[in-house]
ABC transporter ATP-binding protein (Niallia endozanthoxylica), 281 residues
Amino acid sequence: MVRLHTNDLSIGYGERLIVKNLSVNIPDKKITTIIGSNGCGKSTLLKAITRIISHQSGAVLLDGKNISKENTKTLAKKMAILPQTPEGASGLTVGELVSYGRFPYQTGFGRLSKRDYEVIDWALEVTGTIDFKFRPVDALSGGQRQRVWIAMALAQETEIIFLDEPTTYLDMAHQLEVLELLQKLNQEQERTIIMVLHDLNQAARFADYIVALKNGEIVKAGACEEVMVPEVLKEVFQIDAVIGKDPRTNKPMCITYNLLKGENHNEKVNHPVYAHASSHY
């Protein structure tokens, strides 16, 4: 089932197009990861789909409706986004920050209702941050802060959550902690998760569906096994990758790779260095 999709979406800054005529279907109640090299349009695409920035042409459709025509509060009840570097939490306690997720539901003077407080506590419980409720956000570790931001997104009670590089600046343990939390939200609450990730093996391990971008266009979109193949990674990242299987998850994983240099990188595969590396497999 697909509730969210784009039709011939083009996004740019001034006269420079970053994303070009992109059409993609986002599987409902699944985890989708978007991969690609720096500057390929991953974050730009997320911002346009969530209406943070406008698009030049095409459309983003949610439940058959063009989001550009949706009321802001109505849209905020359907989708939440956690940007790459969340800001604006300085001086706030954890509980106060998470309460911002209730904005779409507030009326009148914006006072929190009993229902709002119940949802805030639920979001803190689910993310394992309830013990930090009265602590300043500034006093938390990077991993703790990221879970608090996810709690704020959960407090919006949306069925769709976007995250732009949610593991950035986190160590390996905290990266895994955040990704396992998102997987749990997807599996237990059927939240649709769309996120940008740089780590290919994390993308393959946690995603049901992967979208690989290059220069603002889709090279390949599909199941992990369809996207995590040498040919696609060669086109997207200019690498000669060796793909195996994760012994714990049975998902595809990049075991090793060589960098293909120069404009004619297709010819570089036969270079003695690459030929020697490939002979081991």
Remarks:
- DSSP finds eleven helices and twelve strands in the chain.
- The chain has a mean pLDDT of 90.
- The first helix runs from residue 42 to 49.
